């Protein structure tokens, strides 16, 4: 029987030049439920499907605020994500303390990239079994980054990771052109629609299994921009958004930006 | 000879375990400048707890010696909000003494409150924050933060709470407290006007028969007037107090901040 | 003859006596700066409506000796801020190298913002001031202070003129006008006449501010024995920093000197 001799640790290349442990870690990301992120010129949103292990249990959180201007969506091992989340929190708090500013998002993402890469090059270490979408704003505006267990990080316009995320990505690719000029409500609806594409046959978005997070820059009356802190919405707070993308609503003309939503802006 | 057998290390001199003991005496006539890590930056603070509010106040002058370094250097800081602008903060810290230590103390307490919020998903209570502040100060018992701190907020029942500290962390919840350069000028005034010390019911008798004036909580406007009067008095008699009066009133609706002018002489 | 490598290159014991190894001792008390040695005198700066003006003379003194008459004490950071140094010159040079490292790191960290208009995304003057405050405060906590008082000028996160100070103990503050050392007694009252409040400073034109600063430099040269008539002046605007490093004090008049009486042995 075939046995792979090159996947016992993360420091040995296979003859084909692959590092199997790292690839297996990437598989762990695909076990996690799907998360979608989209960035426009003014906002970055993260939406996620939460899973409950059984009927009696609560739903596992998928979206985490890091600092007032950054948050993450996770797919994979939640406990590994918590380690990264704590690290990011510490770093951004430390940066704020020494420089008195929001940590640039790319700087932060690069740090977890380097941190994760170390685990792929040291014997006895294990790569993180989690993928992240990092959404944040800085002086250059909103950003969305993808993070993989290999340590790879990349800036994205829109992306989805997790189980069946290919369907969500297909949706995002189809609507790619539209995102840049979307307002926050529109962007959330796009996110939820992408999320729906990835759902299993008879499942649908409910207030229990859906999480939404937004971060952005808001134009003020005097022409200057003001960062809008990273906020996570769960439960009743997301019901209006879910309804707005329900199948029977689909036929109705796309709702105007910000129409009568009783969420804070 | 006796010293040789003495168990007292002081009599034996320091027992260095390395070969060359450091040079002890400086060359004759050489003057050694030693670094003094502290200065007093003057200024005064004041806090009064009411039934459902707390007033915190401090002047905005920053001095060193006879120089006025700045006419606007706040001594009051909102603590533990979600964002850097502290919009949703419910606790105020006032620091007076050595300004750099005050700044460090404030940033440390704020970072701790932010970590608390991140870990527990709720803001810290004033009581918990007060205890934590004491621990922070005591941790530096042998190189203290040279700061007289006062922490103000509303307790679990919604009543005004004022906690006052010495530089090494002894603390106490009080009705009112003055700190800093003009504390000795303001505190007796407060004792008389807030806690009605040495006030008696007219005509209630003599000696032990004298009845103390009944204590009742101040209204907010009475409190604010007292604060202004206290500072006007302090400015008159203390050279390190003046320029501006920063006042924060903490109520269940949040924190209101006002800046009033004081004499600049 | 001692052939151990430890003895290589050392004076021979039989000729010069036992070698004193004590300087190699790394146990025992740590040595730190106990006093400034070569020093720069006052730095002065004031805000005006679209920026900040800062000046310092080009002298580094060794006690009362005018030791180095061509030392530049204003330093540009990332083309958008100016740091002015007073106090110990070797600590200034340490900080200068440190700031060079910092600006290189910052440019590597986020190369995109080099191209961004007015350096947006870079460390601005407020960020830099915060950083230097943390650095100096840490060194005071280690009882190894950087013996300087710094002025930092530039713009804050809201693109408003920014001016702040930090000293060897980490004490920091901001004000419409600032001066270190002797300047806090001699120049600050003059500058406050023109920029007592932020509102007053926001009415000053660049020409007025430069004029006031030059006048202050002159007063400092008249009265501060550790000063020089050659100085540097920097104007920070949204478009960058204009730094002139070899200015000469103009229109001096020492006529007042004759009227000064009552110092030292002079009695009449």
TrEMBL record, chain A:
One of its GO terms (cellular component) is cytoplasm. InterPro entries: Ntn_hydrolases_N, Proteasome_alpha, Proteasome_alpha-type, Proteasome_alpha1, Proteasome_asu_N, Proteasome_sua/b. Residues 6-28 form the Proteasome alpha-type subunits domain. PROSITE patterns: PROTEASOME_ALPHA_1 (PS00388), PROTEASOME_ALPHA_2 (PS51475). Keywords: Cytoplasm, Nucleus, Proteasome. It is found in: Cytoplasm; Nucleus. The 26S proteasome consists of a 20S proteasome core and two 19S regulatory subunits. This is Proteasome subunit alpha type.
From TrEMBL, chain B:
It is found in: Nucleus. The keyword Cytoplasm applies. PANTHER family: METALLOPROTEASE TLDD, PROTEASOME SUBUNIT BETA TYPE-1. Keywords: Cytoplasm, Nucleus, Proteasome. One of its GO terms (biological process) is proteolysis involved in protein catabolic process. This is Proteasome component C5. GO terms for cellular component: cytoplasm; nucleus; proteasome core complex. The keyword DNA-binding does not apply. It comes from the Eukaryota. Gene3D superfamilies: Glutamine Phosphoribosylpyrophosphate, subunit 1, domain 1. InterPro entries: Ntn_hydrolases_N, Proteasome_sua/b, Proteasome_suB-type.
UniProtKB/TrEMBL annotation, chain C:
The keyword Membrane does not apply. Pfam families: Proteasome. Belongs to the peptidase T1B family. It is found in: Cytoplasm; Nucleus. The lineage of its organism: Eukaryota, Fungi, Dikarya, Ascomycota, Pezizomycotina. PANTHER family: METALLOPROTEASE TLDD (PTHR32194), PROTEASOME SUBUNIT BETA (PTHR32194:SF6). PROSITE patterns: PROTEASOME_BETA_1, PROTEASOME_BETA_2. It comes from the Eukaryota. The gene is pcb-7. It comes from Neurospora crassa (strain ATCC 24698 / 74-OR23-1A / CBS 708.71 / DSM 1257 / FGSC 987). GO terms for biological process: proteasomal ubiquitin-independent protein catabolic process; proteasome assembly; proteasome-mediated ubiquitin-dependent protein catabolic process. This is Proteasome subunit beta. Keywords: Cytoplasm, Nucleus, Proteasome. One of its GO terms (cellular component) is proteasome core complex, beta-subunit complex. Non-catalytic component of the proteasome. The keyword Cytoplasm applies. InterPro entries: Ntn_hydrolases_N (IPR029055), Proteasome_beta4 (IPR016295), Proteasome_bsu_CS (IPR016050), Proteasome_sua/b (IPR001353), Proteasome_suB-type (IPR023333).
